[in-house]
Amino acid sequence: VLDSAFQEGDMDTGLEDIQVPKSRALQIQAELSELTQKRETMQTTIRILESVQLNWEHFQTWTEFSRLHLSNKLAIFGVGYNTRWREDIRYHYAEISSQVPLGKRLREYFNPEKPEGRVIMTKVQKMNWKSVYYKFLDITISEARCLELHMEVDWIPVSQSQVMSSSKVSFHYLLPGHIPKTHGLYAIGYGTLSACNNPAHTSLQADEEDSCSLPQCEGENGSEQCDGGAEQGVRTWSTVTYCYLGIAEDRTIQQCLFQHFQGSGKHYAYGEPSSVTRFLQENCRSARTGQDSECSKDSQQCCAIYVKFIEVELDFLSAGSLVECLETAVGYSLKFNNKETL
């Protein structure tokens, strides 16, 4: 009886049914990840707006934004509302308008023929909302690119290499090969890794080089995968700590990063090494020798180093308070920018 109940055809059908939920589960996971990323972006945008003293402007009519009196600059803006029951204004939406001028973007957002405008109009008509408000902060092109660097550009893990020549052992970083030879912005960050004495880190003889990657690591939530591949991006805002924002104005992004990551035996054509350069040199040594690194007092841990960069036209690069802009977005001070003037 059991044999007749479980025919081979029935078993095949059952296996097919099992595959469908798995595929759907992966789709749901991807949708949740995208939703989480959007929520983080919204929270960052709201935090920036709340960090400066901006007053809410009362939205009066649907034709108000047909005029060009607002701003033709790039800006961060927010849309808020209150109700008949609570006078305090709450955020409905916030955005960094880094590609479209503020005036045009708000006219699009408050257009009742657009999906965003229909939502607002419907809320008011149905008395869900009492009044609608907006606030905005003008930003420069370079500040807009800086915020893009933070929220849209992935971190790139930097590998370390060990070279042995006779009895001397030297360590240095292996930067990715696609660093642009143009002007722009770049950031350096770090994350703590354990098991520095990984057997995968083998020495090299003479002039041989090998991209001995940092150990594999996985974040607490399982979302971070940093296998040391220099060409692989890592989207993880919470696990990588910014320590430096560089402005490649006098030199290219490639030249600036090479200057920071070069070994201690190199000659510095631009004077003494900066504090972030000394930090990288010490971390590169302590990662292999077991000495205490500056970002971790535990001798069993070292720092995984990351970089990210974005091109900015030279004519716009010097405009704006870039370090303060990034510090406001991430919510903490950049350790090695406070000691240097940019």
UniProtKB/TrEMBL annotation:
Record carries keyword Coiled coil: yes
Coiled-coil parts of chain: 25-52
Entry keywords, A to Z: Coiled coil
InterPro entries: MSANTD2
PANTHER family reported for this sequence: MYB/SANT-LIKE DNA-BINDING DOMAIN-CONTAINING PROTEIN 2 (PTHR46933), MYB_SANT-LIKE DNA-BINDING DOMAIN-CONTAINING PROTEIN 2 (PTHR46933:SF1)
Protein name: Myb/SANT-like DNA-binding domain-containing protein 2
Designated gene of the protein: MSANTD2
